[in-house]
Design brief:
Blueprint lengths: L24 H19 L6 E6 L6 H12 L8 E3 L12 E5 L7 E2 L15 E3 L14 E2 L5 E2 L3 H11 L6 H12 L39 H10 L14 H8 L3 H12 L3 H39 L1
Helix pairs in contact: 1-8, 3-4, 5-6, 7-8
């Protein structure tokens, strides 16, 4: 089943700032993406973990719950993790993942991975409601398109857009909190590059970015979604329920080659999921670092060219 009926936007916790963050933006932006890779890795569940799930507070009706369950179960085909919606039916407050249907207009939100464990017992760790975007997957105020271009948001247009399409209308504060500020989180996933076909992406009308590029709504898991799920939560001793999802397939899809591919494969052959995840994170860190370096070099060259033109 597709995810068309139920949105699944992930709210991104605000990044803590330190004195180091007050230094040059260019230098820190290169580090932020790498920090985020490590942070996201620390939020992941253990491989093969059973996560009890239940509906709390505004639990929705049976049809809504059934749709949520069927969509959530789709991840089990590609990630070695179990979503258990049965064990805590009678005591939903004890579930690890507690789902509520939010008041319309408040948006859809969720704790990410193990951050759900910090929520007060019995309170929702995920809210599903009327929402415009899908979910934050990358550095959104400078998002790369499939062609490598950056999508730079138009703040004024975004504020007017959400005021007109949300009910009740979003204020400027709402838009900044739930859309623009979320986009200002640097590189909030461990994807090495942005996948516009990912189910984790926001829909974005062309008029909300400088390039005039529309980011489509995605209601199916992309090839990269499946590959990343498999490598972060690998199946050993056999394929996933999708016969095409194998280690080699996942590595090919993501583009892992050379020494990183060899090290991930070696850990996989030892049935060591922690080793697979650690080596995959090491690859992601390297990919982030290389991409950030190329971007910084290009910016310096462009700035130098601008100065030459100005001086002449």
């Amino acid at each position: 089943m597709s995810a068309a009926e139920v949105d699944s936007t992930l709210a991104v916790p605000a990044r803590e700032t330190t004195a180091d963050d007050e230094t040059t933006a260019a230098g820190n932006s290169r580090l932020d993406g790498m920090r985020a890779v490590l942070t996201r890795a620390s939020w992941m569940w253990d491989n093969g973990q059973v996560l009890t799930c239940a509906f709390v507070e505004n639990p929705g009706n049976a049809i809504q719950q059934s749709k949520v369950i069927s969509i959530a179960k789709e991840w089990e085909r590609y990630a070695n993790i179990k979503l258990d919606f049965e064990s805590t039916t009678k005591n939903p407050e004890e579930a690890i993942i507690r789902i509520s249907f939010s008041v319309p207009g408040l948006g859809t939100w969720s704790h990410i991975g193990k951050t759900a464990l910090a929520e007060t017992r019995g309170r929702a760790t995920m809210g599903l409601g009327q929402v415009y975007p899908h979910s934050a997957n990358a550095n959104p105020d400078e998002r790369e398109s499939e062609e490598g271009d950056k999508l730079k948001l138009k703040e004024k247009e975004a504020i007017e857009f959400f005021k007109s399409v949300m009910f009740p209308p979003w204020t400027e504060e709402d838009t900044r909190r739930f859309f623009l500020d979320v986009y200002n989180q640097r590189e909030v996933s461990n994807y090495s590059s942005v996948d516009l076909t990912s189910i984790m992406m926001y829909f974005m009308p062309a008029e909300l970015n400088e390039q005039g590029i529309e980011v489509p709504s995605n209601y199916e898991l992309s090839a990269l979604d499946k590959a990343f799920a498999f490598l972060n939560y690998p199946f050993f001793g056999g394929p996933t329920s999708d016969a095409s999802r194998t280690l080699d397939n996942a590595l090919d899809t993501i583009g892992v080659t050379g020494k990183f591919r060899e090290s991930i494969t070696a850990e996989f052959n030892e049935n060591d999921w922690r080793g697979v995840r650690a080596e995959f994170v090491r690859w992601a860190l390297n990919a982030k670092a290389e991409a950030s370096k190329e971007e910084a070099v290009a910016e310096r060259e462009a700035e130098a060219g601008f100065r030459v033109q100005t001086d002449s």
